[in-house]
Amino acid sequence: MLIEHEGHSPTIDPTAYVAPTATLSGDVRVGPGCRVLFGAVLTAEGGPVEIGDDSIVMENAVLRGTRRDPLRLGRQVLVGPTSYLSGCQVEDEVFLATGSRVFNGARIGTRSEIRVNGIVHLRTVLPPDSMVPIGWVAVGDPLRILPTEDHEGIWAAQRELDFPGYVFGLDRPADGESLMPGISERFGRALGRHSDDRQL
Questions:
Q1: Cα(149)–Cα(195) distance, rounded to whole angstroms?
Q2: 0.90 cut: is pTM over it?
Q3: pLDDT digits (tens, 9 = 90+) for 4-41
Q4: At 119, which CATH number?
Q5: What is the distance between the alpha carbons of residues 140 and 154, in angstroms, rounded to a whole number?
Q6: Which of left, alpha, beta for 162 (phi over 0: left; psi -120 to 50: alpha)?
Q7: What superkingdom heads the lineage (predicted)?
């Protein structure tokens, strides 16, 4: 399904294949030789989504471009099934295995590999030829790659990256207060811009 969003329509190179149940919304650009498979969602939420030549987006992956951080995949990138990428830059020849997660402002260097359920956190920089093991978390710049059970180590790096401030423009509340009223108001308002979308 192709959707016009905020005056922008997806563009697909004639040599690319987009499955009939994939959804492309807004300023999405699919390059030559690409494959976007069943159930994948590529959505430009204020910033473009660009898929480089010969890249593959597997089933049920979600790729989201944001106003602050457009999403760009380089050439010959494989995005595995159910992966989630938001506002990140992925260089050439990167492998993002099933269930990988890459968040806003992250940069993944050429030939890097994020294994099954690996996470690359907000504003994290992976140099070329990096590898995140199965289920581990890459966080920060300089980079730290930590097992999920090292919550204190992850939080120490993550706190400085300021997810609520960077993504939603909100200050982290005092202990015991919830971020969710502010997040739901701001994010809901932004997503409400889809009410004027038009299916092509």
A1: 41
A2: yes
A3: 999 999 999 999 999 999 999 999 999 999 999 999 99
A4: 2.160.10.10
A5: 9
A6: left
A7: Bacteria
